[in-house]
Amino acid sequence: MTCREAGPLLHARLDNELDMAGLVSIDLHLSECRACAAKYAALEKLHEEIAAADLAYAPGIALERKLATQFLREKKSPSRFWSWNWLNASVMAAAIGVVVLILSVPMLRIGRDADALGAEILDNHLRALQTVHQVDVPSSDQHTVKPWFQGKTSFSPPVPDLTEHDFILIGGRLEVIHQQPAAAIVYRRRQHVIDLYVSPSAGADSKPELRDLGGYHLLHWSQNNMSYWAVSDVDSNDLRTFADLIRAR
Amino acid sequence: MDAKVRFFELTMWPHMRAAYNLARWLVHNDQDAEDIVQESFLKAFKAQASFRGSEAKTWMLAIVRNTAMDFRRRNKSGIAVPLGDEGYEPKDDSPDPERALVDQSRREQVRQAISHLEPEFREVIVLREIEGLPYKEIASVLGIPMGTVMSRLSRARNQLLVELGGTKLDGAGEVQHDLP
How large is the greatest C-alpha to C-alpha distance in chain A, in angstroms? Predict the structure, then answer.
């Protein structure tokens, strides 16, 4: 075998594309030709370096969610979808989200405003589901999400880790609801996104109150001078469980 | 279950990450890559009747690749030249106390070197080295013969070796090689 003939086989060997005969003949050549052996070593090193550099670009969660929303809209049986075990956690994260929003006092002061506020929050939730800008800080780590709000809000929203209860943290984003800054904490439960909106409130504590709007559920409550809205298309009992867990923290 | 949804779940969705990675390497910007993936998924969804049960991954990636090529043609000015094409200089191997920084910059060098390749060489490197596809599947994604895959891969790797400057083959070796 000449070096010229060996050239392409070096690559084929590296890529496990040779049959036994090819392997035997190139290995024989490599054992006799220092130049080709050096070249092969260089190619091997390059191959390892590219692998070590881990250069695959990962899609943002927003894209995953957008595609899931776009193509699974007509889905008839959600539970079936989730039984496919090839779905890994990140894929599920894409399709499911829970956003928790905490709203500020001024928005909630007047009871009459609550419905309008609920509608505004639902709009915000739906807009977030459809845009690239799902979270400003994508992280499943509460110790990443919580500090992110420092300096961006005058309050520190609760960002509990509810993984053991099957509410998975996706991240957080800053929102403006009724001209007030609000923290939106995003969780998911199975294929559902939950937004939790949080903002300061001077009102008295109140228990979660459920509203249904266009197939979505909104739960609103006040606690320790903070106002909370949780919105999602998740089952309303699940949303109540979620609210109870947030309130217990 | 709805057949269309099932098709999406089983045939398209599992290859979403590979689709995004390929698109992202071909266009150099997150937003464009996302648009290409979305457009590709729409095309694939509409074309599912034409999917004949061949390898789903290569089928999806072929759609993504063609969509990316169309995109490049439409936006020639924006992407014709890879980032920083002119001034790339491989660094020497002088020791650095900050090992982590060195590793990081080496990683960046490898990334840059690949992004500097012409698209037809970059795509074979991405499909082979990053996605780990065998030659046959690369040929199928790109719609070219396997021999062409091999020659492009060989040229691409040689360019990377030169640009990354990691291994200096001695002159005699190069002459003896007489590579095209």
Answer: 88
Question: Pick from A35, A53, A67: which is nearest to B111 by CB?
Answer: A53
Of A43-47, A234-238, B143-147, which gets the smallest average pLDDT? A234-238
Q: What is the pLDDT of residues A74-101, one digit of tens each?
A: 443 333 333 333 444 444 444 444 444 4
Contact A37, B177 (CB under 8 A): no
Question: Is residue A111 predicted with pLDDT exceeding 70?
Answer: no
Pairing of strands A226-232, A98-103: antiparallel
User: Quick check: A70 contacting B, CB < 8 Å?
Assistant: yes
pLDDT for res B138: 96
**Structure-token pair, residue B167:** 């291994």
Six-digit token pair at B20? 């995004």
Chain B residues closer than 8 Å to A52 by CB: 107
Distance to chain B for A187, nearest Cα, Å: 22
Contact A197, A212 (CB under 8 A): no
pLDDT of residue A113: 61
CB contact (8 A) between residue A11 and residue B150: yes
- Mean per-residue pLDDT for B6-35? 88
B102 touches chain A (CB under 8 A): no
Contact A53 B179 (CB under 8 A): no
Calpha distance A37→A27 (Å, rounded): 9
Nearest to A135 by CA among A174, A179, A93, A167: A174
φ/ψ (deg, to 5) at B20: -65, -45
Verify whether the Cβ–Cβ distance A76 to B179 is below 8 Å.
Answer: no
Per-residue HEC secondary structure of A112-179 comes to CHHHHHHHHHHHHHHHHHHCCCCCCEECCCHHHHHHHCECCECCCCCCCCCHHHCCEEEEEEEEEECC
Answer yes or no: is pLDDT of B179 > 80: no
Contact A71 B8 (CB under 8 A): yes
